[in-house]
Amino acid sequence: MARRLARWTVWVIKAALAAVALAALVAWPWSYGHPAWVNGRRVVTSTQGMDATGVDCWWRAGRIGANCGMDTWTQEGLADRRRLGVQDAEGWTWQTYPKATPGNLRFSCGPLRWDRESDSGEGFSYVTYCFSLPCWLLALAAGAWPAGSAVLFVRRRRRAARRARGNCCRRCGYDLRATPAADGAMLAVCPECGMAAAR
């Protein structure tokens, strides 16, 4: 039972990686004409102020990346931010602070790019971590294991079928003919590995 559960877990992981690789391949050409930015944010307010944590995922110009960060505001900082910023639809005004964007990541190593930005002042502080990589690299990294497993699976099936046609054991290749004749009787079980012969 444990072995079967482990096998199914591996197959689920491979399927998830294959889905990620396929999505990266689709996003690669799509990102040139249709850049997108998706964010998820969790805001916690209290009498002391506001804490906001979030993750932004984006793709643009053949690259895919993520930004994650946390903002902390006191009540005084929130009041200043509303007063100094731009008015929104609800009448609040919020000041816009510079955040790391896909175009200005300062550090790189080959196709990988990353950055860290932070700032603090009277009543506020924030830190943002950014990372991006090309869509083709994500597809290659995520799809290597599933693609390799698929190739090996097809190769094993073809080898087993070839051995079965040649009157050999599908697992180890042992000759299962009981007589030298090509169409002679075959052994029911492989004496080498114990696998039942294919009929």
Biggest β-sheet: strands ordered side by side in the sheet: 1-2-3-8-7-6
Structural class: alpha+beta
Shape: elongated
Report, as a whole number of angstroms, the end-to-end distance: 29 Å
Global Rg:
29 Å
Strand content: 25-35%
Mean pLDDT: 79
Helix-strand topology string:
HEEEHEEEEEH
Poorly predicted runs are 86-101
Q: What does the largest sheet look like?
A: 6 strands, antiparallel
Total E-strand runs: 8
* Discrete helix count: 3
Helix content: 25-40%
Word description of this protein:
With 199 residues, this protein is an alpha+beta fold. The chain has a domain at 29-135. Helix content is 37%, strand content 31%. The protein has 3 helices and 8 strands; from the N terminus they run H-E-E-E-H-E-E-E-E-E-H. The chain has helices at 2-33, 75-84, 135-165; strands spanning 36-45, 49-60, 63-74, 86-87, 93-94, 107-109, 112-121, 124-134. A 6-stranded antiparallel sheet has the order 1-2-3-8-7-6. Strands 4-5 form a two-stranded antiparallel sheet. A hairpin with a 2-residue loop joins strand 6 and strand 7 (112-121). Helix 1 packs across helix 3 (135-165). The longest helix has 32 residues, at 2-33. The two termini are 29 Å apart.
Keywords:
alpha+beta, 199 residues, 6-stranded antiparallel beta sheet
Brief sketch in words of this structure:
This protein is α+β, with helices and mostly antiparallel strands and 199 residues long. It is 37% helix and 31% strand. It contains 3 helices and 8 strands; from the N terminus they run αβββαβββββα.
